[in-house]
Batch of 3 targets.
Target 1
Amino acid sequence: MKRLHIIVLCALLAVSAAVGQRNRFTMQDFEISPDSTVTIPLLLALQDTSRGVQFNMTPPLGLYVKAMQLTSYSKSLGMSLSSNEKNGIHTVIIYQVGQACFPPDTAEILNVKFQAGPDFKGGELEIWKGRGSTMDNATYVIDGDTALVTVPSSWLIGIPIDQQPVQEHFFNLQGQPIDSPASVPVAIEVTTMSDGHCTSRKVAVR
């Protein structure tokens, strides 16, 4: 019986190790002042070789992507960059030229230049729907990330209380109320301030 327990324990440890070794995109939390720009690197942690990668990125309301540039690491592998934006969602593809590939490694693959609008107050930046490709062109999932984007505390001092958000509602693309954005691929988040002013943004759930 003791030997059986040891075998089971070893099997569980092997599964845990396999789960921990995931392919993943990572972007650090960062701070940006309204009406300013900052460049943040995107990291790729791979346990598997990939011929290229693809992902979606959704910045919070008031934060904009001004430019993207491959890092020297990606360029040294012969990678090329393609991106497009629709409804606030950026689809990014980094693909191989010839027989290049991303090896199992952790490295910065892309630099993203962000600009904050004059009224930016922070939020969450989502990296989602990540994909990689084996040498046999089979697609596999790469986990995404959520980066917290904040503004310096000095910018928050003196913001009138009537400009603070007090209520949030979610709707589907047909304008019907929903309980959670997780129930649909893309939702509309409407935030109501104390003074009655409303803002809205699209929210995509991975």
Target 2
Amino acid sequence: MTGLVGSFRPHFYKNIAQQPFPRSLGFLIFFILLIAMVFSFQFSLTLKRTLPQTKAWLNENLEEIASEIPEVEIKDGSLVLPEQKFIKEWKKEKFALIIEPNQENAYATLEKYNNVLLLTKTKFLTKTLKSDSSQEIKAYDLDKVKILRISPVQAGLRVVLENREFQINKSTVNRWFSIVSLLIFPLSLCFIFLWYSFTKLIQLLFFSLAALIFNAQVKANLRYKELLNIGTYSLVPPTTLAVIKNLFNIPIPAFWILYLLIYLFYLALGIKSAALKEGGT
């Protein structure tokens, strides 16, 4: 906790410059874990609010979907069945499920709906209307799908995925949602922790070049290990601001520039502070 608060105080850096780097690395891991826990908790809370609604909707509409959906077959990354366009709309939920074998009509179809799942000849696309009225479109290629067949059966769907076969019905939906509910937090925690660990270590190594430049300019004569210590703690102020921005959805134009400036500011002050201590001893 001392490191978290001290990272915002320039004179703090002269005290940590000479400490063993593994201690600084341990602090960075702790800081990243703290961030991962905060984001995982937020993500889990948000998802757990929507899971019951999604589960209830599926239980209510699964039989109807299964009775109306045509047989779907994807082979070697390409849609084989159906050969004709299929549209299923839920006007109350403002949502649509569409199968469009004609790839050329894909994006024209997307424009007609705010919330839609669209399967085309070679892609699976989703379009959602977000709370801020912006639209998000995601596209996934089918090239990795060797064999996929979806067939309607009584009270559900039969799915064949290469050599595996299973059914989707109310029982399996309820079981899957129970498992997902338990795994949301640990899985998101692992993913976010690994992602932040990778990005922060890359940033630390990349910005060590800037630390070397500052070190030469102010003639601090600090060792590379000391520069890494300072650089590690200098990540805290801009990263904290980034966390606050993301948690509360605060729009900050060109935020990466602000992030960079804050980091370089603390890096330069930290090196200067450590240099003054070196000069005084």
Target 3
Amino acid sequence: MLSKIINDKILLGIITLAIIARVYIAFGTGLAWFSVDSVNYIIQAKALLSGEYLYYFPNGYPLIIAFFLTLSPLIPFKIGLIIFNIILSTLTVVLVYLISEKLFEGHRKFALIAASIAAFYPNQLNYTRFILTEVPATFFLVLSIYLLMQKRNNLAGLSIGFASAIKTTLLPVILLFMIYLLITKKIREGFRFTIFGLIPVSAFLLYGYLITGGFTLYIDVPKVFFISLGLEEVPPDFLSGLGLYLKYLITNPVEFILDRIKSLWDLWGFLPEANEGLRSNIFFRILIGLRFPLLILAVIGFIKIPKNSISIYLILPALVITLIHALVITSTNESFIANPRYIFPAEPSLIVLAVIGLKKFIYKRHPNSDI
């Protein structure tokens, strides 16, 4: 595979430019590397190194940070993490090409288009500079798709398991894909995929239990109900928050539906609401709004291609993210308005589907061009 990339001058050029763009965004713009969440992840990483186990957030990413903290005598851990982001983000571009190349057999130019979009898609570039979960979680998710296409289902499950241990909003992807495999009577594949997918998550649960005496991935779950309902206090546990959420749904159905529509717009609309920072600038709001045509083309691509394990797996991240964030987290809290972090992991697979939609549009009068 490496020799193939090296001998492909166009692809090599795309990869080189992708690296340059990411290095510039991270090191040449002076933009911040940290958010409030970054600080909390680092606190959890230091706790892991000291033999403790904090679970405000999932500990998958803190474990990665902990590794780079141990390398700090050789390289500052912050720089190490950013370089790690650049490497994983670039490898994600390569994986998008390899996935697309297989799907677009006989139409290599569309695979190059998909790689080019992934290389320079604004959101994918921007979050390379942040010490956050987005880049590593997305890499393992896309790697899982590639491994599934190579019929290495166990490794594909393990890879999405790593992604879920880093970003638990991806955990339903494992369960929904298992359901799909069971429905299509691929029972053995479904259970094996799920078992391997749950290995990384279970490892953190077990380790957390040994240290704290309790099973939990992270304690922040009730906060989503606090955000969604605008409560004065965070519910004490998940069931209490869920009860309040369902009560609001039953007693205020019209407001609930309007909230969901507004939340869906904030998640996928072509012009997100203004917010502090870059989102106060209309140009950057338009760049974020590229998600709208991307989603439309991706839906067209999904409709047009045969429904099989690969096509279902490609659409699942966007479906899961939409269900979680549009149905639960609304825009009543300013810090959650149109946050492009939410959809970041789904973008590479949507890019693949969107280029399929583009190809179908271009070749709609040529039935022999079907994938």
